[in-house]
From TrEMBL:
Residues 3-147 form the Globin domain. It comes from the Eukaryota. The keyword 4Fe-4S does not apply. This is Globin domain-containing protein. Keywords: Heme, Iron, Metal-binding, Oxygen transport, Transport. GO terms for cellular component: blood microparticle; haptoglobin-hemoglobin complex; hemoglobin complex. PROSITE patterns: GLOBIN. GO terms for molecular function: haptoglobin binding; heme binding; metal ion binding; organic acid binding; oxygen binding; oxygen carrier activity; peroxidase activity. Pfam families: Globin. Belongs to the globin family.
Length: 147
């Protein structure tokens, strides 16, 4: 079980309180699909993903990016048991969707970049440390079924 300090809990809650899910989610997923084009293989049903402009304007990418952020919101609300919170998602992504677990880390990195850009100077080293700890726990929970 992960131990969270009050400062970490506050930093993570503050990030979520300031998030515009409909902007950050699509930007994060779009960035991941553009920077790491091999991740597109899981989104074949999303239509045109042939270039950055197509990805950035794809409504299915935008919608799924928002879904991803709401999924992270669930982890934030259940920080003391993220593994149990994500047990079904881990099974879905490993056994049904066959997602390469490294893609979770790539998406987490893209999310960190987007949030850092949005928060600017408020994304201090302490806030970043709490955020990256949170994402590491989320990624570990999602990868649990693979182990």
């Amino acid at each position: 079980m992960v131990q969270w300090t009050d400062a970490e809990r506050t930093a993570i809650a503050d990030i979520f309180a300031k998030l515009d899910y409909e902007t950050v989610g699509p930007n994060c997923l779009s960035r991941c699909l553009i920077v790491y084009p091999w991740t597109q293989r899981y989104f074949g049903a999303f239509g045109n993903l042939y270039n950055a402009a197509a990805i950035m304007t794809n409504p299915m990418v935008a919608a799924h990016g928002t879904v991803v952020l709401h999924g992270l919101d669930r982890a934030m609300k259940n920080m003391d048991d993220i593994k149990a919170t994500y047990a079904d998602l881990s099974v879905l992504h490993s056994e049904k969707l066959h997602v390469d677990p490294d893609n979770f880390r790539l998406l987490a990195d893209c999310l960190t970049i987007v949030i850092a850009g949005q928060m600017g100077n408020a994304f201090t080293p302490d806030v970043q440390a709490a955020w990256q700890k949170f994402l590491a726990v989320v990624v570990s929970a999602l990868c649990r079924q693979y182990q």
